[in-house]
């Protein structure tokens, strides 16, 4: 199904077969909770289909979806450069997350590598814990064998406890074969004492295991089959409450044309979306108005990059839901 990049970002949060997010509070110790956060973070790096490019979100485009007690809201807060903001809240578990995505792509001859800049933050408010993390890079390989993979280093740091998880999404061989394909390795350590507490190893599209450095025990903390199988697409429960900026409304005609393989209609639908954006921009310029996001406050610095803060404390329940 064709979809906007906004929806792709959001689906890594709300499209899950097993609910890892609401389970984060179940950890009895800070280390237990960090292990759960590690598993949840790995679940947001999904295998992607080669050759399926999402739509570039329009300025001000939104995506608002609910799953159970989790409400997620995204807004395209900048078009040049592209920056997307995400805020999700689970009022029952007292969990919230804020993501700011600013992808920058570079062509490397046989592949395209996209670095996802911006801050990611997850708060377990019942425990007074804030986890900060980054994103690995997305690589789209063109030659010799087409495919996609996540590569690079991902760090998860808890401000309050000083516990840190470092994960390395390992790059596969040039030909794309071997045991290293989609492999992940890492460790969890105490940043105060520098003591390594756990070793992490596995494959992010299969299973990931953790092994204690003090005990002879090893266990699976993440199973991709449980998390990303049997996923269901969002459905509109309250059509009259859907915002006009919702991604499904903006790109609906284009998506239907693509699914129907009516390429002439698809080109026309895409042209209408693009021209509407230009017209709104011209009107804003003529009035001397500066555009600002409706749901987020944005900031940028050379040192910190892009950052976003939600205007509302809680994301309201959405008219679009997923099971």
From TrEMBL:
The keyword Transport applies. Keywords: Lipid transport, Lipid-binding, Transport. Pfam families: Oxysterol_BP. InterPro entries: OSBP_sf, Oxysterol-bd, Oxysterol-bd_CS. GO terms for cellular component: cytosol; membrane. GO terms for biological process: lipid transport. The keyword Ribosomal protein does not apply. GO terms for molecular function: sterol binding. May be involved in the transport of sterols. Belongs to the OSBP family. This is Oxysterol-binding protein. It comes from Phaseolus coccineus. The lineage of its organism: Eukaryota, Viridiplantae, Streptophyta, Embryophyta, Tracheophyta.
